[in-house]
Amino acid sequence: MRRVVVTGLGMVTPLGSGVDVTWRRLLAGESGASRVEAFEVSDLPCQIACSIPRGTGEGEFDADAWMEPKEQRKVDPFIVYAMAAAKQALDDADWHPSSYEDQIVSGVLIGSGIGGIGGIHDASLLLDERGPRRISPFFIPGRLINLASGYVSIEHGLKGPNHSVVTACSTGAHAIGDAARIIALGDADVMVAGGTESPINRLSLAGFAACRALCTAFNEDPTRGSRPYDRDRDGFVMGEGAGIVVLEEYEHARARGARIYAEVVGYGMSGDAYHITAPSEDGDGAFRCMQAALKRAGITAADLDYVNAHGTSTMADEIELRAVERLVGNAAANISMSSTKSAIGHLLGAAGAVEAIFSILAIRDQVAPPTLNLDNPSVDTPIDLVPHKARQREIDVVLSNSFGFGGTNASLAFRRVDA
Amino acid sequence: MSDIAERVKKIVVEHLGVDAEKVTDSANFIDDLGADSLDTVELVMAFEEEFSVEIPDDAAETIVTVGDAIKFLEKNVAA
User: Which NCBIfam families has this protein been placed in (chain B) (predicted)?
Assistant: First the structure.
């Protein structure tokens, strides 16, 4: 199998538009949570979310800068976020294929958990109220999850494999892992890969609240709502955004002098075969996907420096933590593990991709981002959960975990590449 | 310019994101204004909405320029 490296990063998150602003604010311990103001929430149990800061100021998300207004009208926001993050990542990688030969070896694999659920809701109401003649020809193509990959390919002339992933909250990790395999197997040299999500609407909040998955105790104190491992946690805080990377075959990147952030050394997958929303209580699925990632990477748990946890601020936090303890054994005291969902919330299908980028930046800057609001851990563990403040430390090998509804698990392992 | 022509041109500018000067009577939606086949379907829907009129598919197929749309609507919209 060929080696695969990361050469470009892009993101739109509740901490801002762009990798630099998000990472700076994340390390500073800032939260992206606030009360939902965009629509009526008084009858919803969860009234907070991590929304993208919109505007034209520095670090704010200005949709018009990434997609023409007349195109934005046709699609759900998850596609606009993907367009923004993909452009950032391709610019960062300085990969703009113009020859046919370069275009056909460059593909796209962007996923989403629930895609255009907001637009489907709106169109359903329109259908009921006004009838079928009022349904736009852009209704279907603007909601389909794989149209994020479609739009990005059209915008940038990427004619290689065009694919998508839908695995709930593991989507972003699966997208990056699968795209890396496509390159490793020689079906493409460059892949634009990641996840995107725009779930902050009444229907999604009502649906996840019905699953008893959302934070409901911090409606008056939003920035304290997402608190992984803390004894007062009571559910996840929903987030929105996109994370997209440019993956590249190692020699291809070397030959054009591209900057290499890290190597994708491992990718593990597993299924819980247990329950539609709850992880198996023994953490077996989580353990096996991490183990598979390390095995593929040819490394042992002792090599591991940092784990970006799935850590959603739910009952599942402890299950993951125990699985990591089992994985690393005596090396536990040497490992830092944080949940960046404490700052940006749970970006669902985008989470795994955004968090993979945080893991890569942890290698670049030798710093573990913090777990906010971890005031009173509900568990004892020898693992450093990086409470409140970022931790400067040696980080060469990282693992990024994602677990989704349906019992679908993915772990990505990245390693520093010495120049 | 008639009231109908003015409203038609406004809709075309909004939906296709083109400059108003380009929206002449002879402008072809696809060849001159950059629309694709889905855009033209949506344009016809927008005309139906704006003028509270139903444009059957066979009539919609004959509306390929801005002038075609204005002519159709002037004939079929109750004053």
Answer: acyl_carrier, PRK00982.1-2, PRK00982.1-3, PRK00982.1-4, PRK00982.1-5
